[in-house]
Amino acid sequence: MIKVGIIGATGYAGGELVRILTNHPEAEIKWYGSKSYIGKKYYEVYRNMFQIVDEECLDDNIEELAEQVDVIFTATPQGYLASILTEDILKKVKVVDLSADYRIKDVAVYEKWYGIEHKSPQFIEEAVYGLCEINRDKITADTRLVANPGCYTTCSILTCYPLVKEGLIDVDTLIVDAKSGTSGAGRGAKMPNLFCEVNENMKAYGVANHRHTPEIEEQLGYAGNCEVTLNFTPHLVPMNRGILATAYAKLIRKADGSLPTEAQVRQAYAKYFDKEKFVRLLDKGECPETKWVEGSNYVDVNFVIDERTGRVIMMGAIDNLMKGAAGQAVQNMNLLFGLPEEMGLELVPCFP
Amino acid sequence: MIKVGIIGATGYAGGELVRILTNHPEAEIKWYGSKSYIGKKYYEVYRNMFQIVDEECLDDNIEELAEQVDVIFTATPQGYLASILTEDILKKVKVVDLSADYRIKDVAVYEKWYGIEHKSPQFIEEAVYGLCEINRDKITADTRLVANPGCYTTCSILTCYPLVKEGLIDVDTLIVDAKSGTSGAGRGAKMPNLFCEVNENMKAYGVANHRHTPEIEEQLGYAGNCEVTLNFTPHLVPMNRGILATAYAKLIRKADGSLPTEAQVRQAYAKYFDKEKFVRLLDKGECPETKWVEGSNYVDVNFVIDERTGRVIMMGAIDNLMKGAAGQAVQNMNLLFGLPEEMGLELVPCFP
Amino acid sequence: MIKVGIIGATGYAGGELVRILTNHPEAEIKWYGSKSYIGKKYYEVYRNMFQIVDEECLDDNIEELAEQVDVIFTATPQGYLASILTEDILKKVKVVDLSADYRIKDVAVYEKWYGIEHKSPQFIEEAVYGLCEINRDKITADTRLVANPGCYTTCSILTCYPLVKEGLIDVDTLIVDAKSGTSGAGRGAKMPNLFCEVNENMKAYGVANHRHTPEIEEQLGYAGNCEVTLNFTPHLVPMNRGILATAYAKLIRKADGSLPTEAQVRQAYAKYFDKEKFVRLLDKGECPETKWVEGSNYVDVNFVIDERTGRVIMMGAIDNLMKGAAGQAVQNMNLLFGLPEEMGLELVPCFP
Amino acid sequence: MIKVGIIGATGYAGGELVRILTNHPEAEIKWYGSKSYIGKKYYEVYRNMFQIVDEECLDDNIEELAEQVDVIFTATPQGYLASILTEDILKKVKVVDLSADYRIKDVAVYEKWYGIEHKSPQFIEEAVYGLCEINRDKITADTRLVANPGCYTTCSILTCYPLVKEGLIDVDTLIVDAKSGTSGAGRGAKMPNLFCEVNENMKAYGVANHRHTPEIEEQLGYAGNCEVTLNFTPHLVPMNRGILATAYAKLIRKADGSLPTEAQVRQAYAKYFDKEKFVRLLDKGECPETKWVEGSNYVDVNFVIDERTGRVIMMGAIDNLMKGAAGQAVQNMNLLFGLPEEMGLELVPCFP
Fold first, then answer.
1. Strand partners of residue B133
2. N or C: chain A end with fewer CB closer than 10 Å?
3. Distance CA D107, CA B194 (A)
4. Do B76 and B215 fall into the same domain?
5. Number of domains chain A contains
6. Which residues of chain D approach chain C closer than 8 Å at the C-beta?
7. A328 falls in which pLDDT band (50, 70, 90)?
8. What is the CATH classification number for the domain harbouring D265?
9. At D176, is the pLDDT very low, low, confident or very high (cuts 50, 70, 90)?
């Protein structure tokens, strides 16, 4: 039984970790860390867990935690883990970080986009970017620190990855227009996230400056072995869960001037995703819908070629709290401990 | 492995059966019956099941089905099962009926409220009303036919049962005001159920004539060993899942004119629900919320005593597709086959 | 042109006052009071008003305001107006108070339910309860202070008024089960009102102790010329606007033991509402829906007689920000200044 | 008083026409055409209009209508008006067509994208494309036929128009990613538009083949005096009203290689929209939100320059039933009859 500690157990991502791990056959939560609710029963914060979880919330004492558990999930604000992580802790315990602290290899890029100083850049190099489908072989029993990808990033990267990797699209023309449910904004009491402000409303935000941009660029850059600079625009949509990414890029024409065919593009997706449990390449003509993955760890992707414009429209859908956060974090934990990757994650999407 | 057939597998309740049974360790769906989609892949009807269920939809041939499976779930319109059920079928297979056909013991009452003739009244007597918490001991290996309770009924009965049973309330004053998400209205293409008609809207319907009324009355009548005639008013609310019942009744004063105390009423609830896995009596002061049970088989109940009016306000919340339909049906299946009652039903409520 | 000042112009009710008054042909807002946003453009707080309102938010200086305007609307927290209102102010300006400070005639009742001391009880007697359809003749050029009714109260009272007034129901059996959209909870940044907490969720709250209870009781008591003690239960529903009240009471049987007929009950409603612009008695069989009144000042009411239980189910729907707050406040202003009661309020309900 | 007839008065756009025209000071609806509801009271189809509109629905007899009214609005399926319009009718009455029949000048393009034969191409030339802000001077007392623009088109064109017109962007790089509320899908009873299918869900549809594409291309082509071929991707979002367009294009660099400045781009928008009543160019940094224009005829637009990618992100928001359909149609009517363009359209956006 893997002993698990969660720091930030009472945010939405933390709550989703608890929901998953409660039914995980090889893991057991030993520490519900939540500095806002210390001493409160966890079920008083999330009443859905009444009679399921009886433990109290504890403080965020990572040293103490490192003594008691095998793996720590940190679902904490940006900069928090970087400010407390030490070599000593990493010697004792594995860490899966749901914040952005170790996702970006270039510390200057991190500091510029996040507007904060990175307090422990010495661990960035070692941290593995935990996008399991792509970096699976780097997430092993030897790995100490996993940077769990962002929600928008997971969706955006997996949507575009095969075509970037296979060199089928001109990355300089790549644009990702993403739409997210509101749980991505967290459980903090902020006026713009009130029901009446979000409901029956829609808007773009973080236009040209959202923090997930450099993360997408870096990872797609690795895939394409090139510099990627793209536009990423997130939108807020009146629903609880779900991210939909719609990406646009020019297909690279063949020597004869023709576009890659539907079959060729499909083949590229199939090459990377056919054996993936959690990535579902939809049938031709089907557009991903967020509801079809809700509550599950699936990523649904598909594409349409527009002969008129020479572009491919790539689409992907995830549950932002699952594959976009807690689900992927557990997937990483499974890899770290040599368990079947899908263990505890075979939750069937809930419809309607 | 229990072999399962579903007639009506493509309605919302049928879809929920599939979601649950897909992960049930002792059951296997052998027949996805759906007369509207014969020959279509099931996942083409519910895309959430893509790469999870690969079977095609079959017709509703109950005789054939009876040969092939151990249990049939019928998630069909009222009157359908009654028109096709035979002794021969019941000799071969157990049936859990999610329609109303065998819920009401008095066929005249059924025919009056449903406005249709009952085609096989000979099976009514034998059918067990499958409200597991109350009729558990009647649902056994010998049972052939289970009448799975209605969604509103399940919620309403469990909310009031202990106080009726213990004689703490005057049943002549009982009123149940219930509110439901829209999945209860089914997947049929009807204008009043369009998104734009339901969203940002609320209404009562079926006032004084909703078909779940006699079912609630009959079952509470058994509990109280008396005639029960009550008002039941359902409302449509803009959400997918969830039923909330708010019930009102006069508490019966003690000989000295005083009301039963909070502790006494709580004790009555505890007497019947303390050992129940799926019924959660909330802490004093907590009102049930539908979101806390969403996606799960739980029923959350609580009450408030109003000293001013001498009434008790009883409240209950369920997921109408789970405890209100498919979840309870699987709970019944587990009982029928001697499995642990909660098998396959330990789904943690999903929040948010 | 009536000069209008608003204290609390940036809450949802204040915003709705601005929306209405912007198009009112005889009124002009001179003071957008909002202590949280002093110095900010009003449109920066409500971007829907961009290029419509160019004024800045001002502080809540009621003395200064009294010099400059003809009528002040106070859309402020309970107790605020009571703590600042003076004879001197009332000599200069009319006040329409959207808070509860002067709604309840018995100061002890107010202090008990609201849990605060009333700082200016000397004005309670003089304040007119501004439920226009009932107290119209008391709202005149001589009136200085109007207590604008609460949202739940307006809906509940108008739903039941004719039957209480005509003595058709036993008020001791009266129960009001009400459901409200979330704008009633205000624009304050509170976690329970976040989108993800309210959306896809439903709950009762304030059970047996909601503050609108004594207000409903007092007004229905005047109507029935009797003491009224009832159960009022509010529920939170995932929509922006709208209140639906479902009320239950025993019909008083006639000497021969028969119930009042549909026609007789309808006649009672018609007697009070037939000439009312803003109250619509629906056709038999139609249940009020909140969407049908959204954005308008209408109250839709109807009823069903249940012969089985001898009860009448009364139903009413309003837009809580319109007839439940700002719309009724403007209706009161119109009466105070001798204008046609519907002036500026002929907004057609918006569907869908 | 302008006498108005509506063919298709019971669709959502038709209903919105009725809502607006009911309060229009110079127009009067004489004919509520609805072939599905002939003989029914209009308010039985839209209960919000109870006691506001007392007329019955009539058939779609356009010849008869042409005798009785001054202007006909056709809110009908594609191809319908084209199949019944005659010279004789146009001699008697003005027609504002909310369908696509006369929007596209090239009949071959129309027939290809709509997949139907155009039955009266002889009127295409004469029809004025009624995007008032751009074609205002062509909509006069002499105009007989106005092709009212599509909802997505109105939003997309106005969002991009100034930059195309001023030659600031490379139109070959133009991509419009649009998101719409569900009322755009109409009131027909279709399963994919059921509440439970749309709610908590999001998807793209009509990818690379949505019919509004050639309309946007044609109009932007006129603006830029060039061929425009672009990607337009609509998405369905769980809300009733509102369209948000997010458009991307490369800014054309100046001779010195620098990008146009924020001020220059803003100046281009201001040049075309500063005097427009219904187009609001937001302050720098503000992203349009659909809720800010809900229920009104406004278009909110703004942009962000991304120095990193050299692109400009243009954003626009409308209410699809107002500026995207009925509001613009009335705006056209006002122009046709020499009335102030904003008459009857000064509806303040409703928030929340």
1. none
2. N
3. 34
4. no
5. 2
6. 12, 15, 19, 22-23, 46-52, 183, 200, 240-241, 280, 282, 286, 289, 291-296, 300, 346, 348-352
7. very high
8. 3.30.360.10
9. very high
Classify residue C344: in a domain, yes or no. no
A145/A131 Cα distance (integer angstroms): 13
Between CA C221 and CA C105 the distance in angstroms is 12
Residues D172, D255 share a domain: yes
- Judge if D266 and D177 occupy the same domain: yes
CA A83 distance to own-chain centroid: 22
pLDDT at residue D132, as a whole number: 97
**ipTM score of complex:** 0.97
Co-location of B225 and B104 in the same domain: no
D135 within domain boundaries: no
Hey, what amino acid is at D110?
Y
Out of D57, D151, D155, D160, which one is annotated catalytic? Answer: D151
The partner residue sitting opposite B198, judged by closest CB among D183, D189, D195, is D195
Averaged confidence pLDDT in chain C? 98
B140, HSE (Cβ side, Cα atoms, 13 Å): 4
Q: Which residue of chain A comes nearest to B296, CA vs CA?
A: A48
Tell me the pLDDT tens digit for each residue of C67-92.
999 999 999 999 999 999 999 999 99
Closest Cβ opposite residue B187 in set D191, D199, D240: D191
Q: Is C151 a catalytic residue?
A: yes
If you write DSSP's letter for every residue of A20-43 in order, what string do you get?
Answer: HHHT-TTEEEEEEE-TTSTTSBHH
Tokens of C64: 């200064």
Query: Within a domain: residue C338?
Result: no
Written as one letter, the residue type at B215 is E
Apex CA C38: angle with CA C36 and CA C39, to 5°?
145
**Nearest-by-CA chain C residue for B182:** C200
Beta partners for residue C176, in sequence order: C232, C247
φ/ψ bin of B256: left (φ > 0), alpha (ψ from -120 to 50), beta (otherwise):
alpha
pLDDT mean by block of 10 residues, chain B; 352 residues? 98 98 98 97 98 97 96 97 98 98 97 97 98 98 98 98 98 98 97 98 98 98 98 98 98 97 98 98 98 98 98 98 98 98 98 96
- The residue annotated as part of the active site, out of B57, B132, B151, B160, is B151
What is the pLDDT at residue B123? 98
pLDDT digits (tens, 9 = 90+) for D278-291: 999 999 999 999 99
Q: Are residues D162 and D281 in the same domain?
A: yes
Average pLDDT over residues D224-253: 98
Copy the structure tokens of residue B155.
Answer: 């919620």
Judgement on whether residues C172 and C103 belong to the same structural domain of the protein: no
Residue in this structure with the two tokens 């309003």, named with its chain if needed: C318
CA angle B176, B179, B184 (to 5 degrees): 120
Q: Is residue C334 part of a domain?
A: no
Residues of B with CB under 8 A from a CB of D: 12, 182-183, 187-191, 193-200, 238-240
Q: Give me the pLDDT at residue C347, please.
A: 97
Out of D126, D143, D170, pick the residue that ends a domain: D126
Task: Note the pTM of the prediction, 2 decimals.
Answer: 0.98
Can you give the pLDDT at residue B274? 97
The enclosing domain of B105 has a CATH number of 3.40.50.720
Same domain as C104, residue C172: no
Q: What is the pLDDT of residues C137-164, one digit of tens each?
A: 999 999 999 999 999 999 999 999 999 9
Q: Are strands C311-318 and C243-250 parallel, antiparallel or unpaired?
A: antiparallel
Question: Which range of residues forms the domain containing residue A235?
Answer: 152-319
